[in-house]
Amino acid sequence: MIEGKAKMPESVGIIMDGNGRWAKGKGVPRLAGHNAGMASMKKIVIASSNLGVKNLTVYAFSTENWKRSTEEVSGIFNLIVKYVKSELAELIENNVHINILGDYSMLPEASVKSIDKLVSETENCSGMNFNIALNYGGRDEIVRAVNEIIADREFTDEPGISRAVTEDEISAHLYTGSLHNDIPDPDLIIRTSGEERLSNFLIWQSAYSELMFTDTLWPDFTPEEYEKMLEAYTHRKRRFGGREKEDK
Hints:
The active site is at 17, 65 (proton acceptor). The protein has 248 residues and is an alpha/beta fold. The chain has a single domain (11-153, 164-235), classed as Undecaprenyl pyrophosphate synthetase, CATH 3.40.1180.10. 40% of the residues lie in helices and 14% in strands. It has helices spanning 19-26, 30-51, 70-93, 109-121, 138-152, 167-173, 223-233; strands at 11-15, 55-62, 97-101, 129-136, 188-191, 210-213. Strand 3 (97-101), helix 4 (109-121) and strand 4 form a beta-alpha-beta unit.
């Protein structure tokens, strides 16, 4: 068990990678890999809540994933409907609050209705925030934030009034920002499957995140390995661009 809960990451992001390779290695359809990945996600959500992680953000479907086959994309969306039907009661029982990052209005109607239900029925839950990045892309998020600022701002010709966009404004208008879901930047981002890149995930918010990678494919990623990574995080020294006194 992790000692020193005060050092636990408040916010964790996970790039759930490797479902397809897991399926290929076992000689089963890719959708079987996504189904196994869904089961792994459930275990990690429970583990996160038990370990005291306050915010868990998972990369479920990116804006680039539309390039995959129609069969695979449709299957992923059907899994969303299945997940809501099978897990909603348990999520509410465990006081898990659901946020969606991304524009999921483009998804099939059944998926949109399921997601709406997931969000609305966990709205009053006050436990861990489980944030699902769905039809999400980091660059797209930043563009949307800037366009929101442009649309909302009342321009004036008065001299001395600055029209410059600030970092704080952009942060506030992101899906994670104070004007939307108010989710803190990730302290730690984990990626499974051996790939070592962010792939357009929380690229603004991850400026000072700690990064960890594992060769384990997502369906094989266990709560035990997850806990070990959180334990390793507690021993890291975060400087946010500065230096500690002993480094001077």
